[in-house]
TrEMBL record:
Protein known as: Phytoene dehydrogenase-like protein
SUPFAM superfamilies linked to this entry: FAD/NAD(P)-binding domain
Species the sequence originates in: Nonomuraea fuscirosea
Amino acid sequence: MRADAVVVGSGPNGLVAAVTLARAGRQVLLLEAAERFGGGLRSAELTLPGHVHDLGATVMAMALASPALRGLELKGAEFAHSPVAVAHPLDDRPAVLVHRDVRRTAAGLGPDAGAWLASVGALVKAGLPLVELLLKPLGPWPVAPRALAGAAWFGPMAALPATTFAKALRSVEARALLAGMAAHSMLDLRSPLTTGYGLTLAGLAHLVGWPVVRGGSQVLADALVAELRSLGGQAVTGHRVRRLAELDAPIVVLDVTPRQLLALADLPAGYRRRLERYRYGPGVFKMDWALDGPVPWRDPAVAGAATVHLGGTFEEIVLSEAEMAAGRHSPRPYVLLVQPYAADPTRGGHTLWAYCHVPNGSATDMSDAIETQIERYAPGFRDRVLARHVSGPAELEAGNPNLVGGDIGGGLAGLGQFLRRPVWSPAPWRTPLPGVFLCSSSTPPGPGAHGMGGWQAARLALRS
Ligand SMILES: Cc1cc2nc3c(=O)[nH]c(=O)nc-3n(C[C@H](O)[C@H](O)[C@H](O)COP(=O)(O)OP(=O)(O)OC[C@H]3O[C@@H](n4cnc5c(N)ncnc54)[C@H](O)[C@@H]3O)c2cc1C
């Protein structure tokens, strides 16, 4: 097929790039190395026949907030919300719950209700225009004045380490909740920006919810592929691109991380050196289970939340993430758990996944530590397990080369690489090779199933 544009890789960024280019009238060819489209949006029967598991993203807050995905108005992908967005169980008291309603959530935080409303509540008031600004920090602008005012207020607070922001909080509940949210960043919680990651994710729970895709995230990937094909685009699986020289098109958009780009092409020395300095973040150790019923949470309210943060108090989570950042394995890790059945009963039974953070490339088996953390809040959990599937960093990378050393974020998300992703540039999606663009989560705005990198790269390609 003659193509005006080739997109390499079909994660959410590659898919959005392909559809954006096709909607602009380009003949698009999408090449995917794996046997299924979707990258971090794939689903598969990992444990038992009929049990649908997401291999990557399940929680679609970023997708719902993303102007790139919302703008596509896709048919076929339906979002399902659990009664509670997020739960954070604690040993000696009721779980902390994040509801869609910010005031209801604040009411559960005792003396910190006011602090929640003044921080997360104010983000909610600034609304989606502020979130859009965070998702496209380099433009295109103009931005709604409300978003700029929100950014001026939110920016300085967001830049703080979570450990600094936590000094303003008094309750065990609010502090634990902050740590659980901020730890999504996979950073040491003493690092700048961790407050921003935590508060933004919490704000999204109130603004758009933390839904899942009915039937599995693969449904969203398939809807994007269907849209591409309906526009005349071609999409091919099982085709791994090894050298850019194989491709013959005026536009090439790459959904790959810097290390892969280095292997794909001969790059000018200066750019090559900058990419070689790019840093990958910690890895994850992921487990998937098929259960014979719901997780037997000690606090039944936790059953209503699709996402559960495990790891106990603020201090425990700070310690576990500091251990991981120092290259060690925490015996009581922070565990991010997703029980999609709380929102979506159509996945063929009670499927569940959880991961903890580990040093990049770690070969340590964390299954016992993860299951022990679940048992801590759900005694009898192990008795419910029908089958389990374990993926350490090596298995994750074997299934998707973008997960370098098990890093699911496409590179460290600390302050340096927030500004320099993957290089310092007003248009970091552009490479020095004519017509070649990078769109993965190693470009702004970074990790998450939002497709914004793909949208930005396609936009830039169309303009050039
Ligand atoms: C376990 C896990 C849980 C997650 N949970 C969430 C969540 O709940 N919510 C959320 O928003 N995000 C989550 N994420 C993160 C999210 O999945 C990623 O940020 C997102 O998928 C990144 O999209 P991408 O398009 O940049 O790359 P990817 O989704 O990683 O896709 C890259 C694609 O490119 C293909 N590819 C690479 N090299 C080549 C080549 N040379 N030739 C052809 N094809 C190639 C790969 O096979 C892959 O399909 C999770 C990720 C993981 C792994």
